[in-house]
Design a protein that fits this description.
This protein is α/β, with parallel strands linked by helices. The protein contains 28 helices and 19 strands. Strands 1, 2, 4, 5, 6, 8, 9, 10, 11, 12, 13, 14 and 15 form a 13-stranded mixed beta sheet that branches. β16 and β17 form a beta hairpin. The protein is globular, with a radius of gyration of 27 Å.
Length: 771
């Protein structure tokens, strides 16, 4: 009856009904031999296998699976079936459901780029070559290179080179006397999210954009190119969405929602996607265009305009004159999210809490690295949880494994779920754990909310690095980055205030994660030949990801640590100060993170920032109060007491034995014993700290983003900005707004102090009995 009823409901509402339904079908489970937490973790870590990970990746990447296509739905069915099979455990009440979500999608029809410069005429191939050692490189998609949400259009104009397309780059052009108005702008990938390159060019009057992959970023300047190495070959093209992701995440049309884009984002749909045609290009196609640019201004371009191609990079305009013709089909379509729910002991009750894991499934063509190395890891995590379930284990908190669709277009599936179930997730979620690019190398990359730092570090110590055989913690660089945007954690952290994590194994110190990103060559052949031949890093990714989830779902006190967050807050203030001091990087300041990390002494510098009358003392005072609450010895003692499982069991046994009366309870449960009410109060205090950093009004001019501590940089997209309301106002030269934002941020930090201190019981005549 429930399933009949659910078929009549809206898809997103139906998913929530089915998630909740498991509570009604739970049955008693035969008791098994008691296992210690160490036993449970040992069993969990023993399950992920390189053979099954390889098999999953091979089957997922046999066909292209762009979001909204028939092939994409086929792969969704495979993932749903594998999750159901892995988690099948009698009496566990697991549900695995697929949800259809209506969104705006885009696909290429045809396109062309041609150039005339004097007697020279050139037409770009806009195609990726077939490789004999790459079994799937002959796909039709090798001839379908495009940028999603670029409008159709035909334009012709002089060409101008604008480096990475940042505000600083356009400012440099303006200082040289070079205008991009009524010009076609060519920019290289890197530094700034592709959609924001387009936004910056469009706002300055450009009529069209070409974005190419420069070998300095991910080609021969970094290392050997595919198929001889992992880096981008000459004719490889990076596809991708050109949505303006730092303005608002998710479906630009909000077709799934009863609220409009304007209501949710503060922008009309046409303001978050380009109005001018855009095309991506390989460096082989871009080279003739760049070779036919001169420097009419006579001013030498900045040194950082020089890329990796064998020429002196000039800005133009001209003499190259380019014709750009784009024909894309933009229309409503359907994507499919999948949710596998492992009910916790309180599932279906007000006390239930949940840990959410997510990976997106859709790809720009085959996606062996991005994202399906993460998908293979997710399926290995599900096999490990299934093994525990069949042994009789049950999580303390509910675990939800999510396979998102439509991420490549702009985080469509995850944002839809987050917005549709915002209240439910705010009430229930403990953390969101994301893996996108699971494996593109052997170096662990961690980006994380401060509250999750300790549980992540602990898990890293517990798994083994496959290459060295040492604990992963001994070969990891120890860096924990800040979260910006660009993957599915965005709605959870930036919109809902849920502590979040993004894990990946990447190439060493390369400027980009891997060489064939978003191309037809991101294939099973590439993975097996160049990245993880034995699939050992797929195994360690699954072990690490799953172990973090296991501890978050199992430990008596939810492992959210306020002390690392307090230290982060001091670093964030230093970031503001470095922004003021680094006037030469007013547009982006991408090096500030490095400067701040290397200058720990700057943490507690002057409260009056140099260069202007911005008073940070209210924020510094608020941060000091948060630090005091986080480092309170009484809180540390409370966490230690409530973490003791044996004390809780003693209390339960005494209650079960019928020890009654006021005096009896006092004898069995003195104040230092942490009973259910006390434990719940502590866990809720820790869980709600991150929520306190949300400002309901949102960031200035970016209302969808509500987290005052971090957000994607307005002109970065992927990269994080810290105290973004303050820092963007500084960049804009608006110190009045910056000071207002100091007040807003101070109030949210003080709200976090209140949330954290709520672990303390309210004084009452019978407070000693509240256990």
């Amino acid at each position: 009856l429930l399933h009949v009823f659910c078929r009549t409901q809206q898809p997103m509402k139906r998913s929530l009904l089915l998630l909740l339904a498991a509570a009604s079908v739970l049955v008693s489970v035969p008791r098994v031999a008691a296992r210690t937490p160490a036993d449970v973790e040992k069993l969990f870590l023993s399950v992920p296998s390189n053979n099954t990970a390889r098999d999953h990746l091979y089957k997922i990447t046999k066909m292209d699976h762009v979001a909204g296509t028939a092939e994409g739905l086929h792969v969704a069915g495979y993932v749903q079936d594998e999750l159901a099979k892995a988690l099948d455990a009698p009496g566990a009440g697991v549900t695995v459901v697929m949800d259809a979500v209506k969104v705006l999608l885009a696909y290429p029809v045809n396109r062309s780029v041609s150039m005339r410069a004097g007697d020279t005429i050139f037409s770009a191939s806009l195609s990726e070559g077939e490789l004999p050692n790459d079994a799937t490189s002959g796909s039709r998609w090798r001839n379908m290179t495009f940028n999603a949400y670029s409008p159709s259009g035909q334009v012709e104009g002089d060409l101008v080179y604008a480096n990475y397309g940042s505000p600083d780059d356009f400012d440099a052009l303006a200082k040289m006397g070079v205008s991009v108005e009524n010009k076609i702008v060519i920019m290289r990938y890197g530094s700034t999210f592709r959609g924001l390159k387009v936004m910056n060019a469009e706002r300055r009057g450009a009529i069209g954009v070409v974005i190419y992959s420069d070998p300095m970023e991910d080609g021969y300047a970094v290392g050997k190119t595919y198929p001889d190495g992992p880096w981008r070959p000459a004719d490889s093209v990076q596809r991708g969405s050109v949505q303006f992701n730092s303005l608002c995440a998710g479906d630009p049309a909000r077709l799934y929602s009863n609220q409009s884009t304007l209501e949710l984002c503060g922008f009309e749909m046409q303001d978050v996607i380009p109005k001018i045609p855009v095309l991506p290009m390989s460096w082989a196609d871009a080279l003739p265009l760049l070779q036919h640019l001169s420097n009419p201004s006579g001013v030498t371009p900045p040194a950082d305009f020089q890329g990796g191609l064998p020429l002196v990079y000039q800005t133009g305009p001209g003499p190259a004159r380019v014709s750009l013709d784009v024909n894309n089909d933009i229309h409503p379509g359907v994507i499919h999210n999948i949710y596998a729910t492992i009910p916790g002991v309180d599932y279906g009750t007000p006390d239930d809490r949940m840990v959410v894991l997510g990976n997106h499934r859709d790809a720009w063509v085959f996606g062996a690295v991005d994202p399906n190395s993460g998908t293979a890891a997710l399926l290995e995590v599900s096999r490990a949880f299934g093994t525990l379930l069949r042994e009789g284990w049950r999580p303390r908190r509910t675990i939800v494994l999510c396979s998102w669709d439509g991420e490549e277009y702009g985080l469509l599936g995850s944002t839809a779920w987050g917005e549709t179930h915002a209240s439910f997730l705010s009430d229930k979620a403990v953390a969101y754990l994301n893996v996108d690019v699971g494996v593109s190398g052997q170096n662990l990359s961690v980006h994380v909310s401060g509250l999750l730092s300790d549980v992540v570090r602990g898990a890293i110590q517990a798994v083994t690095d496959p290459a060295s055989g040492k604990p992963l913690s001994e070969v990891w660089d120890g860096v924990m980055g800040d979260l910006g945007s660009g993957s599915d954690y965005t709605v959870f952290l930036d919109r809902l205030g849920i502590p979040s994590l993004d894990l990946s194994f990447r190439q060493g110190n390369a400027p980009t994660s891997y060489g064939v990103y978003h191309s037809v060559y991101d294939s099973f052949s590439y993975m097996q030949q160049q990245i993880d031949p034995d699939f050992k890093y797929h195994v360690v990714q699954a072990q690490l990801w799953g172990l973090i989830a296991l501890r978050l779902a199992s430990e008596r006190v939810v492992p959210l640590a306020p002390v690392p967050l307090a230290l982060d807050l001091h670093r964030y203030i230093a970031y503001i100060q470095a922004l003021f001091d680094g006037t030469q990087c007013a547009g982006q300041c991408t090096h500030i993170h490095t400067r701040v990390r290397k200058s720990a002494s700057s943490r507690r510098q002057h409260s009056m920032v140099r260069g202007g009358g911005l008073d940070l003392s209210p924020l510094q005072d608020a941060v000091a109060r948060f630090e005091g609450a986080a480092m309170d010895a009484a809180l540390a003692r409370e966490i230690a007491i409530c973490s003791e499982e044996r004390v809780q069991k003693r209390w339960q046994r005494a209650r079960g034995a019928g020890v009654g009366g006021l005096n009896g309870v006092r004898r069995v449960a003195p104040p230092e014993v942490c009973g259910p009410k006390r434990l719940k109060r502590l866990n809720e205090a820790l869980r709600l700290v991150e929520r306190a950093f949300l400002d309901e009004a949102g960031l200035p001019s970016r209302k969808w983003f509500r987290h005052v501590l971090q957000a994607p940089g307005l002109y970065l997209g992927y990269g994080a900005d810290l105290f973004p309301g303050i820092c963007q106002a500084i960049r804009d030269g608006n110190l009045v707004l910056a000071q207002e934002q100091v007040g807003v941020c101070s109030s949210r930090v003080l709200a976090a102090v209140t949330a954290l201190n709520s672990w303390m019981p309210l004084p009452s005549a019978h407070s000693s009995l509240v256990v």
